[in-house]
Amino acid sequence: MKIKLQDVVRTGLLAALAVALQSMTLPQPVTGPGINAILFVASVYVGPLSGALVGIITPWMALLMGINKLAPAVPVIMAGNVTLALVTGYFAKFNRYLAMGLASVLKFGVMTLGIRYLMSTGTKIPAAAYTSLTITQLVTALGGAVVASLVLAALSRAVKQRGQ
Q1: Looking at the 3D structure of the chain, how many domains does it have?
Q2: Which is nearest to 125 in space by CA: 141, 111, 109?
Q3: pLDDT below 70 — which residues of the chain?
Q4: Is residue 156 part of a domain?
Q5: Which DSSP string do the residues of 26-41 spell out, in sequence order?
Q6: Is 23 within the bounds of a domain?
Q7: Is the CB of residue 46 less than 8 Å from the CB of residue 14?
Q8: For the domain that residue 14 is a member of, what is the CATH number?
Q9: Tens digits of per-residue pLDDT, 70-79?
């Protein structure tokens, strides 16, 4: 597999956009769908590995910036993001909307299992964090899918107009 410079640049730009969005410290109903939309766009427009890479970076940055104060949740969030990116990226060629919906549900499932595993090992997960890391993830992923659909449609029109 040959990696193209434009894919590296696009991935870097999308990662920077995600970190910039996180640094604005907006409420989760804004930031969550925004980050998920970026993951969807990276996965469809650049490729599944691009989305996965951005999905690995964002939880670490949230921890480093003090947005996420629950360090044991970082690997769980990474796993959810990578699931979302890979499922979307590999299945979007068949049906983009179905892929994003399935990816949202699977992200929720992976994160719920991960958080429950942490709890079973004695990790204290506050009730608000549990909700934020489970059902809220499904809602924000689906919201991100809607935003990403609009962005991807605009990107598609722009590429067609440029004749590429």
Answers
A1: 1
A2: 111
A3: 1, 164
A4: no
A5: --HHHHHHHHHHHHHH
A6: yes
A7: yes
A8: 1.10.1760.20
A9: 999 999 999 9
